[in-house]
Amino acid sequence: MVDFGGWDMPIQYKTGIRAEHLAVRAGVGVFDLSHMGRLYVRGADAMALVQWLTTNDASRLAPGRAQYSLICGSDGQILDDIIAYNLGAEMLLVVNASNRLKVLAWIEQNQQNGPLAGLDAKIYDATAETAMIGFQGPESERLLQDLVDVDLSTLRYYAALSGTADGKPGLIARTGYTGEDGFEVIVAAADGPSTWNTLLEGRGGVTPMACGLGARDTLRLEAGMPLYGHEIDESCNPFEAGLGRVVKLAKGELSGKAALERVAEAGPERKLIAFELTAGGVPRQGYAILDADAAVGQVTSGNVSPSLGTPIGMAYVPLRLSEPGTAIAVEIRGKAVPAKVVTLPFYPHKTKKIAAPSTSRS
Hints:
By secondary structure, this protein is of the alpha+beta class. Helices cover 18% and strands 32% of the residues. A 6-stranded mixed β-sheet has the order 10-11-12-9-3-13, with helices on both faces. A 6-stranded antiparallel barrel has the order 14-17-16-15-18-19. A hairpin with a 4-residue loop joins strand 6 and strand 7.
């Protein structure tokens, strides 16, 4: 157990990181995600608040849909990466545990004396009174269907429905952080332990495996998903992090717009890349990226891929070194270990694609 954003979290359970990782790739893994912040935005102007706060275009979200987005400060740097849900009567923002209080403070600051002043929108922090559980893997839909009262076969990726899970009312979303098909379930905190235990029960010849932070990290790394505090933080902007696709500058005013426009026009000076070591070794966060023996960047995340068996990582490098196939090196214990730039993801995403209804806007 370790401190993670103010929460006691398991790095691994008794089976170990590799076994947990492979269980998600082949069957189902269960993740305690209750540390993630759950902030509800309520009021007539809830959408307007989220639209200003986040970089993506929340107005495109039909009720029941979700989107990946960012919150940027006035300098255009990333305060957090989030999932925003349109639940119809309210909006839900799922934020990182370590950034929850920072995000709340940023909203309050701009409500008191800023662009959000006067809006009919209030933030309700439901983190402590709800539990959030991930159920991820290729067998997730089949096993979860027996425990919920909604038709999961019609639930699109990045969509959510109100229903019951293990007989407990909650929200069921087809979202996740593993690259696999899967779901995230939000229930009342009091119902969390029983829901967790039920999800871990074997059904249909498959026994789900409890998974900790270690497997969560290797799974998202293989899937090429950034982690706050590694690939993104307040020292970087969306464009250098390869997240310009979720910055919709044409939508109107938004937090940090002027700074984001400047970076978008000038272009980033560095870029987040993926790489594979070509001569063994294990790349770790903070290791130097070398070009002709000169340090030009740092590894943001790295490990040996449990699925592929190869050493992989992500790092920021100058633009001239960012093209796939470019030769670089990683300094490991004083030695320059050869590596090459590759495209993301390392491991192909297996999220389920369901045709959109004709009336859907996103």
